[in-house]
């Protein structure tokens, strides 16, 4: 099997006036995604997603990857990241950069999708002998909204939908943080897992004050309390508090993640399967993390394609150091509950995270069927 074409497809969905939302560092008024469609000489199609500004990363895929990937065997996915780091693809200076890593990821994941389809096996089986049939979805919700939404509303909806875990946005002020966390915990109940996400909006001093005020609410992890580049801030927090720290959605590639794990400042690393470098890089990161006794849980804020890739990866996350048959820790899986038709409408059969469990597809490759008429509806090139 050989690749005969690589096509980036930029997508957009404007949210409409007054409907912008996001985290404490800013809100977005448009949902976007960049799909990568890779076609093989026998007509098989593989899909990936590059998580980056759509027109920019689409151009990058055309400029750096299209010619380089045509003619490759899908098994070359194993070394595609190496080709990017060495400059064989894209030139020596740009391999480690965020947009190049996102472009690489979209193409690399599409090659794995082809590979799975050629073998008739889901990607999770190609990545790991040990894989889970289901993961535990957590509602990523309680966003900061332009329209001043009552934070209780989205959490009540998450509980009605059967979620047993949730992650909420905080980081505007200590008083607001306490209000939002208390609201979430009261609605979720004592048994549910609750995570908080600051999107790096505090200094270590501010974060410490906030965490001390909310730690009584039994938090499973605290995400990006300080900016990703503030390693000393993470270290200060880790020395001072007992709640696990998480980071990684703003990290790219094996070198940045290796630094993050080796600094020994976080308990959970969170690669995104739309920009971490691809499945082969993510599999390496899983080994790296567990070798250092750090957990790995993907960050997911993608369209249906990046979501499908993340589910395949999450299904292979090792339970080490616990025995796999005795692990009491669920594989928590981020499921965005905000408006995004690119998550729901691109698939013939959308994912259903309700009821507290998310099945991992068993069909070959990413295990999804793309509705190409829906893709065309959101296309912006
Ligand atoms: Mg986050």
UniProtKB/TrEMBL annotation:
This is Mandelate racemase/muconate lactonizing enzyme family protein. Residues 152-244 form the Mandelate racemase/muconate lactonizing enzyme C-terminal domain. InterPro entries: DgoD-like (IPR034593), Enolase-like_C_sf (IPR036849), Enolase-like_N (IPR029017), Enolase_C-like (IPR029065), Mandel_Rmase/mucon_lact_enz_CS (IPR018110), Mandelate_racemase_C (IPR013342), Mandelate_racemase_N_dom (IPR013341). SMART domains: MR_MLE. PANTHER family: D-GALACTONATE DEHYDRATASE-RELATED. It comes from the Archaea. The lineage of its organism: Archaea, Methanobacteriati, Methanobacteriota, Stenosarchaea group, Halobacteria.
